[in-house]
TrEMBL record:
UniProt keyword list: Cytoplasm, Exonuclease, Hydrolase, Metal-binding, Nuclease, RNA-binding, Zinc
Entry function: An RNase that has 5'-3' exonuclease activity. May be involved in RNA degradation.
Family: Belongs to the metallo-beta-lactamase superfamily. RNA-metabolizing metallo-beta-lactamase-like family. Archaeal RNase J subfamily.
Limits of the Metallo-beta-lactamase domain: 15-228
Complex and partners: Homodimer.
A Pfam family matched in the record: RNase_J_b_CASP
Upper classification of the organism: Archaea, Methanobacteriati, Methanobacteriota, Stenosarchaea group, Halobacteria
Species this chain originates from: Haloferax elongans ATCC BAA-1513
The protein, known as: Ribonuclease J
Cofactor note: Binds 2 Zn(2+) ions per subunit. It is not clear if Zn(2+) or Mg(2+) is physiologically important.
Length: 450
């Protein structure tokens, strides 16, 4: 059976992920993401009102026109998890394909919300829920199957999809860390990865996220970040002024820890910002997290400002606002607080806890620097870097290669500079550039089996 891979997006940058795998006459598309930095660099861009071609020209979504070179029919669109760099272009591109969108329950719900917010295109693709550990037949040949393997990442309900073909499995390995003691969900299913590496014809190709490939050791567990956060929160228990916390709104495990520790130090947690309300509200509704009944979630600006007024009236020392804006996004809650655009007054000595790292990208770094400067100018004390990454470091990559023993490797989720450490690592394991290690670019085709 012919096996061909189209590397469409995410092979020149971190963002706008999209890869298509053709097995015979059947094509499966993995991810359709947004490159957020290409959007943030423009003022007041509303992507939901923009045409896909304009967003492609902007470098914000994948240029999927290369799909016309694939001789086969798209049978499924499979987002791996709910981060925007993996689902943010579905509302712009999915309607071009007569295929269902297949994902885990939490991811499907986030995709549904993306589609509902779309103003330009009618996206009517079927939305199909599939749990980790399940399989689905692809196409009519009866020879190709799609499997979801549970992985741990900085968002719940993430999977690595595996396309089983007569020539071996194609494992799409974006994004994960090896977490054996996560906070809210099951550990990564390494047992299944090892089985896949030894079944049938083994693993034909492994497409791998290279984000932290140049960092030594292993990525710590979310339980490590939780302990660090608890230590910081306990240390400020006796402070009688304002404490504000911020993290990735999609990081439900971290948000739930913040909520719990706020209660432990005698403060009422409150979630503020549209995305904070969206992600936590969705996770609670689907039963992924059990949040306190009296937890307030407010996304609309008027509701947020009303809440801030109440906090100022009843005393900042009684509350922990958990807000959006850890990357310094211009319209996010923490940025507005830093600019003095909310009723919440930051005073000398108030604490701001960043339970997130700045995404290492110039636009984000500049915005985060500006946000911190504004907060410091008002007298805020910054607690930084209370976080663990959602991506594998060096030892995790070695472990995955040992488990899967893939015949071919395709680095992804980075630019050329970001691929370099992974290339070194792969070469140390016997792979060779141009033979079975394929460094590629957006819009390329890789023929694995003729």
């Amino acid at each position: 059976m012919e096996i061909e891979i189209a590397t469409i997006g995410g092979y020149e940058e971190v963002g706008r992920q999209m890869t298509a795998v053709r097995a015979g006459d059947d094509v499966v598309v993995f991810d359709m993401g947004l490159n957020l930095s290409q959007v943030l660099i423009h003022d007041n861009v509303e992507t939901e009102k923009m045409h896909s071609l304009d967003l492609i020209d902007m470098g914000a979504i994948p240029d999927d026109r290369v799909m016309s070179d694939l001789e086969g029919d798209v049978q499924a669109i499979v987002p791996t998890h709910g981060h925007l760099d993996h689902i943010g272009a579905i509302s712009k591109l999915a309607h071009r394909y007569d295929a269902p969108i297949v994902a885990t329950p939490f991811t499907i719900e986030l995709v549904k919300q993306q589609i509902e917010g779309e103003n330009k295109f009618n996206v009517n693709n079927d939305l199909v829920k599939m749990e980790a550990g399940e399989m689905m037949s692809i196409g009519d040949s009866g020879q190709v199957e799609l499997e979801f393997v549970h992985v741990t990442h900085s968002i719940i309900d993430a999977i690595n999809p595996v396309l089983h073909t007569p020539e071996g499995a194609v494992v799409y390995g974006l994004d994960k860390r090896m977490d054996h003691s996560p906070v809210l969900e099951d550990p990564i299913d390494m047992k299944r990865f090892r089985e896949i590496g030894r079944e049938g014809n083994g693993v034909l190709a492994y497409i791998e996220d290279c984000t932290n490939a140049g960092r030594k050791g292993r990525t710590p567990s979310e339980s490590v970040a939780r302990r660090h956060l608890k230590d910081v929160m306990t240390s400020v228990e006796d402070y009688d002024g304002g404490i504000v916390a911020t993290t990735f709104s999609s990081h439900i495990s971290r948000v739930s820890s913040l909520v719990e520790f706020a209660k432990d130090i005698g403060r009422q947690p409150v979630l503020l910002g549209r995305s904070m309300e969206k992600y936590s509200g969705t996770a609670e509704r689907l039963g992924f997290v059990d949040l306190p009944d009296d937890l307030g979630m407010y996304g609309h600006r008027k509701s947020v400002d009303r809440t801030f007024k109440r906090i100022m009236k009843e005393g900042k020392e009684n509350f922990l606002p958990i807000v959006t804006g850890h990357q310094g996004e211009p319209r996010a809650m923490l940025t507005r607080m830093g600019r003095g655009e909310t009723p919440y007054e930051i005073e000398d000595g108030d604490k701001v806890i960043f339970s997130a790292r700045v995404i290492p990208e110039p636009t984000n770094e500049g915005q985060r620097y500006q946000s911190e400067r504004l907060l410091r100018m008002q007298g805020a004390r910054i607690y930084d870097d209370i976080h663990v990454s959602g991506h594998l470091r060096e030892e995790g990559h070695y472990e995955m290669l040992q488990a899967l023993q893939p015949k071919h490797l395709i680095p992804a989720h980075q630019n050329l500079k970001g691929f370099a450490p992974y290339v070194d690592l792969a070469e140390s394991q016997g792979y060779a550039l141009g033979r079975d290690l394929h460094v590629t670019r957006n819009g390329n085709m890789i023929q694995l089996v003729d």
